[in-house]
Amino acid sequence: MKLGQAFTLTFCFLSLGLSSSGLAQEVFRARLSPMPTTPQTVSEILGEGEVFLTLNDHQLEIDGHFEGMSSSAKSAHLHAGPPAQPGPVVHVLEIDPSTGGRIRAILELTDKQLLALRNNALYIQVHSERNVDGELRGWIFLKSHFERS
Amino acid sequence: MKQNHSYEKPGIQKFAAILILGTLSACGADSSSTTAIEVATAPLSSRSLETTSALTFETQANVGAQTYAMNCAVCHGASLEGTTLGPLLSGNAFVRRLGEQTPALLLGNIRANMPPGGNEDLTDVDYVNLVAHILSQNGVDSVITALTPETDFEIAENISEVVARRQRPEPPAPEGLTVKGNTEDFVPFVPLTDTMLRDPSPDDWPMHRRNYYAHSYSPLEQINKDNVGNLTLEWVWNMHEGDSEPAPLVYNGIVYLINPGNVIQALDGKTGELIWEHWTGPANRQDMRNIAMYEDKIIQATTDARLVALDARTGEQVWENVIADNSKGFSNSSGPIVADGKVIVGLAGCARYIPEDCYISAYNADDGELLWQFETIAEMGEPGGDTWGGLDNIFRAGGETWITGSYDPDLKLTYWGTAQQKPWVPVSRHMTIDDVGLYTNSTVAVSTDSGELDWYFQHVPAEALDLDEVFERVLINRGDDKLVYSIGKYGILWKNDRVSGKFRGFKETVFQNAFTHIDPETGEVTYREDIQNAQLNEWTSACPSSTGGKDWHSMTYHPPSGLIIAPLSQTCLENAAREVALVQGGGGLAASRKFFEMPGTNGNLGKVGAYHADTLEEVWSHQQRASLHTGTISTAGGLVFVGDLDRRFKALDVNTGEILWETRLGTSVQGHPVSFAIGGKQYIAVTSALGGTSPRVVPGVIATEITYPRWGNAIYVFSLPD
User: Is the reported ipTM for this assembly greater than 0.90?
Assistant: First the structure.
């Protein structure tokens, strides 16, 4: 093998490796903010958070944090629904049972869920002891989307 | 099409009861609803109220205090003293607004409209107890028997303190000229003619949005991109307190300033010295956005729907006329435009079921004589009258014109946006999504000569979420095209031919999910199915919220760049319709609402967006956490000015949106900035203010970390150092 050919092959392998990992890994983000509220409930539905979601093929690794909720978290879910339109639970997430802490999960998405993720049609919702119907919520967008806004 | 609706509906007996809906619905209500309104007692379940028969008024009041604390106090204050989220419900203001009403009417109104976030947890008994608490706190002291839904005594007559006060004279509120002076002591007076209004001097800002076309653009360029960083405060003037979204006028070096409570001041633009002050009344701390000037007169609409002309030199009253009967609920929150010697003004407070409808009306600028009225609601037997689902005329409500229109002096047409049908949701109106309700939520082009409708374009028929299309119409000529642009609460920038009304294009300026389709050829919108079919007490989630997309804050057109630069808002809502009985005197708004951040915005409520008038493409945007509370203005110096809830007043590069200068004022920056020049020196003026209905309430529950003083109405004037 000539040196030139070796360089070419090496370059091709490197390129393939980089491009495949580049294609396979996409980073998403959700900003968690209070569920729909009114002047009457604004002091009872509290907190905020940020969650990053890394997609490799169909595997979605979720890691985020939240703080300032009115009471301890009871559960967190991944829901399906287009932006601002609530929908059903599709996965259960791990969450620290306190007013602030971490949200984690490693999930295997179906093709349908993958499509929903790329269409901004998945969101995370956190439930607390005082707000069992949900206290924090955030739709998932590509991380780069927020960098533009 | 040509129409003239200038008569009253016949044969319906006047319903005597009046209530200030705004008193009880400001948590989330719009300016169109901060009005006196007739109400009827909503039918209550007799079974649910059987228990009240064994109670006393005092017991009801005690129980009602707890209900009030849990459901009302956050907006109206623990002691009914009011907050920025809701008006006070006690003291003289309460007696003045509600003293002549009955507990039954108060009950009907509260039950139909309060609390704004929903009433599923409140029973009929709870509402009766709430009324008892409010009456008790206001000193109702001669009631022994328990209240019922039919209790019909006059509230004030059962407050012994009020009865005693009525028997002794009390100091009247200031009225008329409280400070006398003459602008001619500062500058020689030159009447403001039609010609000058058509092509204002670069030094002046002589009408709301500066020219007939509503460009909010100043040709002054002394303050520009290179030196705006040197802007310094020239003078500041504290204004009267109250709700305020003011748009100052500046003519020949004099600043004419509308204050809350229908007070107008004339100030020397160079020094801020007060020249004269006139209290037209009522002295109610309510909001009036703008005034007009013509020849030698300052012309104001009042919050109680009168039209008054003052001498621009001295502030003395010249003439007065009634726009509409305030005792029937009509009011104004915006002032007139003067076109070809005619004072043209809109109307608000049209949400109730009474014989009279809302209208745009015109008056002779010389003497205030009524010239014509154009009704915004099509009645049975008239063109468009078959678009109201067969409802009797009396139940056709809405169509307010609560934002001042614009004017094309060549076409002799005035362009206005109309508000939506009332109540807010079709099912509450006893209608369907197919009952489009002409001429609501439309652009109407009306002949200034005759008051006849020349054309209309209904942007969002059968509106279903309290998202009206009522805001300013910006007239722009591009080549041979004469166009009119507008943005309503859906945040859609509409482009129409202003000769024919033909749809010419649209652009979504913020995220919206209310429509699944907007026809690119016709502009026809298709609502999401769940919004189309929303039933009573069903929650619907949609974007934007009732604070808009865009609200009352005017956008600007910058001719040198061809850009339209708009102050926008990014929040969403959940909305649920309430039941409204089809009874004379009923009506109202009737929806429960909750608010949340708009997905994908990173919590940025405020957005300044720049769109090219030809392509409608977004050229740049500036987004920020704090909501915007002023209109945008642009200048030949390449600048855009805008202010926000977080007390910041900013100058942006008109071509890029880059922030070139900012400063912080005493409280939230709210109103309409202006630019003017005196003696060759350019000034930028802006107001700080409180109030402002939905655009203030919604950020108040979403961006709770933003704090500002609850007082501090003022005008600030900036210039470059000499």
Answer: no
